[in-house]
Batch of 3 targets.
Target 1
Amino acid sequence: MAEKKAFYITTTIPYVNAPPHIGFALEIVQADILARYHALLGEEVFFNFGSDEHGIKIYRKALEEDKEPQAYVDEYAAKFDALKDALNLSYNAFTRTTDPHHKAAAQEFWKRCHVAGDIYKKNYQIKYCVGCELEKTDSELVDGKCPLHPNLELELIDEENYFFKLSKYKQPLLDLYTTHPELVVPDFRFNEIKKFIESGPEDFSISRLKEKMPWGVPVPGDDTQVMYVWFDALVNYISTLGWPEDEKNFEKFWGTKDKPNGLQLAGKDQIRQQAAMWQAMLMSAQLPQTKQIVIHGFITSGGHKMSKSLGNVIDPFAIVEEYGADALRYFLARHIHPFEDSDFTMERFKEAYNADLANGLGNLVARIMKLAEDNLPVGTRPEPKGFSEEYMQALENFEINKAMNVISAKIQKLDQVITEVAPFKVVKTDTEKGKILIFDLTQDLYTIGRMLNPFLPETSEKIKKAIVNNKKPETLFPRKE
């Protein structure tokens, strides 16, 4: 038997300094849709998720709550892992950066970069945004503040730390971008990182003084320093595969230098970290590059960035509790643009739920299966048709909303067929012809059910089970007033 094609996908790993919000639910649902799609194609999928548990933000939060940092991150990591059940996710690895294996892998990665001559120590002064966990140049600031965290005061850091020679990798990165023109999706995000590197990237700090910030992975050979959170966290993409010990698993899923295989999803605020810093770090450690990085936009609420002070933060757990996981997955897949910023309000969500799911898909399933239950013999087994090229192409291009639109068009077409052909009337005057029409409807519905698998996995199973049992299911999406 031929070995299955391997498919690797990872999200970024979120800081566990606050509960999950709808913005991160978007990224993990997008990743799950792609993972399930590739599994549906018969590929062997490795889907990585996890939690970023080091850094000054977390250390300070733990102190605020009078908790040990490990107890604090244990509590919040569990809240993110709870997304698996809440959103019906299929990830098979939850990588915590406090796991002993990950810490050992991060230290091995550090050693390889050091051997390559890419790590050095120096005194420096910088402006630092705790919210981003990144250094900020004056050109990146707006009115002296970080544009992503204008409510936070920039901190001045003046100490001796280790640095990574990103400047050394200006030309290798530009060469990578030229030889791999599909490395970053969409194109306008790729252009952003190209311009950043062309302007001359600066070396970046990769450690902090342990006496000031003790919560981190120890720097090999220097017990006065701990790793800067970004250096440690990025290594999770490969430590999750058992790197460096499990070379076979690593090459199977992350790939080789000649044939990279890693797919990463990240938000638009992480282009520099994922497409420049991480790629240079991989070069330094003599490891394969990422195959592709997909960058999504932000979710706004009522036209504003979500924030606790504005009171517009949306809790995915609350939505799932009232509407179900598939309802939220549907909205994120069809009504949130995969690459641009998109607005999410409960008014928009409820409107889409009633129009698209309760009155649309749910009603269609009820109509067809009522006809089937009343007119087709038990044991009828329709076979689903293959996926359309348009549907597959959309998912290959990460245009998740377009793939959902293909399904929605099929739903509307079936509704139209029922209205125009009226099989419920035909079966009364010409039984055999009516049964053929109804059977054809169940076959098309089965195909829709299968196409929905990556998007609405629970609903997909309910539709397929109803067809196999030739029985109308309970209401899939009760209308909400």
Note: The chain has two domains: 6-296, 345-469.
Target 2
Amino acid sequence: MTTDALREELADGGLRGSFLVRDLRSGDEIGIDPDVEFPLASLVKVPLAIATLDRVRTGELDGAEQVLVRPGVAGPPGLSRFRHPASVAVEDLVYLSTSISDGTAADALFALTPPAEVGRRLRDLGVRGIAVRHPISDLTDTPAERFDPAEVHLAHTLAIGARTSGRGHPVPQLDVSRASSGTARAMADLLQELWTPTRIDPDVAARVRELLAHNVLRQRLAPDFTSDSSTWSSKTGTLLNLRHEAGVVEHDDGQSFAVVALTESRVAAAAQPEAEALMGRVARALRDRLRW
């Protein structure tokens, strides 16, 4: 299937997206609008994990240090749903932030390594095109949190209809000039550095790969890339009408592909399982074009 046909399939399913699939061995790649900038939502937890673990490696942080985390407003699964304060080691916060996408754990890490420092370390790795601008707590203060659950579709209507041609948005978390943002190509570059390290410490890269392999959110691309002869390691990102995933599929024959899907929906609904499945079908079709 051609990229034009896949783009049309996305449009028919109410999605607009930026996709990139790269053969990590040859460097060959195929994509759909891979240089369009999107707010990254929880995908920024990958550079956060790299920065934190590298600081542990150099002795700037103690991985065993206990951090007191106080529950806030209940959000997605994780520490925010705790009823009492808890002490969690720095390296365990990295696990919670990366593998179960715990926003409260991520913000405890951002308190130790602020967004600007995470961004600087990304640039030191030679990764361009990813801006880390704010903690994860900023993602929990959107119009969706101000509507009754029965009216959350109104927040999605605002998200869909208010974007400017320059990717700006009155909702700051959806404005690429104010939110933590990046492109599919930049995320593929980051995955390339994790799987074939040149500047990142190999032990740090190996630990982040392990955390991505243990990602528990597997409803998007995982069904199309997981099998008895392959391993899928990834991170998801979700915010209002945005649904993202970035990961690597490793095949038993030695082939490995970085797969990045950044999408925004034009359907005003919070639950869209068909959009999740469509993302996977398009990403797999692109991978198949490269592999075969």
Note: The chain has a mean pLDDT of 91.
Target 3
Amino acid sequence: MRIGGIGVSDSSVWRQAQKWGEKLQAIEEREMSLAEAGDSQRAEKPKAAATANCKGVGLDGTMIYIRQEGWKELKIGCVFDIEVRATKDKETGKWQPKAHATHNQYTAHLGGPEQIGQKTWALARRHGWLEADKTIALGDGAIWIWHQFDHRFVNSEQLVDWYHATDHLHTAASLLHAQQSAREAWYDRQKSQLFAGQAQQIAEELIVAAIDKPWSLVEEIVTEALYLDNNHQRMNYQALQADGYPIGSGMVESGCKQFKARFDGPGMRWSRQGAQRLLPIRAAVMSHSFDSIWAKAHLPPN
């Protein structure tokens, strides 16, 4: 590898990444401590006035391989701004206002839900979450995600990613109908109901439909019904889209793919310490904030 016309060995690059990654880890830990210490003032801080200042948060996970441990979940947090702009609808071809995630900021943790919750909350506070006029928390159906949102992002709207919800609806259609035409007709009809916020009614219909199915299918149909029923309060897609919120969690799923591309290439096997030190560097590069965080890393702690 050559940097500025000077040859630099791979081992030298790795040593520097480990050294400075550890310093970036220390910065993250200080910011987490400041965020936790400041939570008592959360309700007292005034909102910004007038302008539509909207922000969102997403959580998800992906798998990477850790030596002597096997496959482990790398949890990803994403904080983003929300911008509404005219967008061409893929199905109708019409232009209409649609919310988009911008200025995505990422963090990651190789471990439990509580730690990624702390990191994401610190990231959100640093990027003006408390000054936002309105906020939304997006995720799939994983229980750990909603626990973190309930604990830390308490005043936010919550929404199950639209594409995860429709995937479950598609699975239900396949379980109910063997013929493609009947399956597609049922799916299209229920998809419209799902978008309109009728997830609980769909769940009830699935339970009734399961009665006449072979026992081998009943458990799977009930599983899909419970997914919709348990999350129905987080499935108000039409109302929240009309209120200027995104209904898909593509921003955090994109983050998962970018982390996975760096940490799960062919033959990659990481030590836990090596992965943990590189994570904040990767997050800073993806967030386009490496220069500012690099400057902090050179400053002595206060």
Note: The CA atoms of residues 222 and 228 lie 10 Å apart.
